[in-house]
Amino acid sequence: MNLREKYNIPHDSIITIAGTVGVGKSTMTQALADALKFKTSFEKVDTNPYLEKFYADFERWSFHLQIYFLAERFKEQKKIFEYGGGFVQDRSIYEDTGIFAKMHYENGTMSEVDYETYKNLFDAMVMTPYFPHPDLLIYLEGSLDEIISRIQLRGREMEKNTPIAYWEEMYRRYEEWIDNFNACPVLRLNIADYDLMNEKHSIEPVLEKVGRAIQHSRRWKTRQLIK
Ligand SMILES: Nc1ncnc2c1ncn2[C@@H]1O[C@H](COP(=O)(O)OP(=O)(O)O)[C@@H](O)[C@H]1O
Ligand SMILES: Nc1ncnc2c1ncn2[C@H]1C[C@H](O)[C@@H](COP(=O)(O)O)O1
Fold first, then answer.
1. ipTM for the predicted complex
2. How far apart are CA 28 and CA 49, in angstroms?
3. Half-sphere exposure (CA, 13 Å, Cβ side) for 18?
4. Domain ranges, ordered by start, for the chain
5. pLDDT in tens, 81-96
6. Is residue 91 lining ligand 1, measured as CB closer than 6 Å?
7. Which CATH number is associated with domain 3-226?
8. CA–CA–CA angle 29, 88, 140 (5° rounding)
9. Which residues line ligand 2 (CB under 6 A)?
10. Ligand closest in space to the Cα of 65
11. Residue 17: enclosing H or E segment and its boundaries?
């Protein structure tokens, strides 16, 4: 029996990994996909034409970057559903608006008119009854110190040169955002409770929780359909 069957995870599941920059989403995405033999959908950082410019000048590039991310994530989302699931996705589409666009608007680095245009587009594309939501959003959380040290360790220059206050604010916003998030079922994992770098088997307790959460949410969906 493979790990997917062992933990009762349906072959067509769609799992998205959320959490602040540097918390370990990409690492978890790869580990889960390897264990489940699922496909991955990664954020493309190296080929993003706006990201470095954005870190150098938030005000000038924030709208361009949000439109770019929205288009990329929407294309990925479409691909995932066209394949019929069996995917782990690195970062959810919900974080773009709920964290990043909102934060830049509220800090004055995205104008009101740009923010309204962006939100209208996001709502028309995503917040409709026709947009299929993931089976599960895994939210990774941990201490701010650990997350900042991971950003430093990973070593993307644009992130290393960004003031710590930016990551602190993002961290605080994520905590508030996840407490109010209800677009799909959520599983919260603390990064102190597993170590994917040094203990390969630490993915198994995660799989067990994922299996239980997806079974629970699918039973709930079936009951809603029968009602
Ligand atoms: N469980 C872990 N223990 C220690 N370091 C980790 C762990 N998971 C990820 N990292 C490291 O933290 C950094 C950020 O991880 P990454 O998966 O790229 O985060 P994200 O995709 O959330 O930005 C990377 O250098 C990665 O190797
Ligand atoms: N929607 C976004 N707006 C601004 N910046 C974003 C957005 N989505 C991702 N990013 C940035 C943050 C990081 O520098 C890279 C990759 O994110 P990571 O959390 O490391 O996967 O893109």
1. 0.95
2. 25
3. 28
4. 3-226
5. 899 999 999 999 999 9
6. no
7. 3.40.50.300
8. 50
9. 21-22, 25-26, 43, 45, 51, 65-66, 69, 91, 96, 100, 159
10. 2
11. strand 14-18
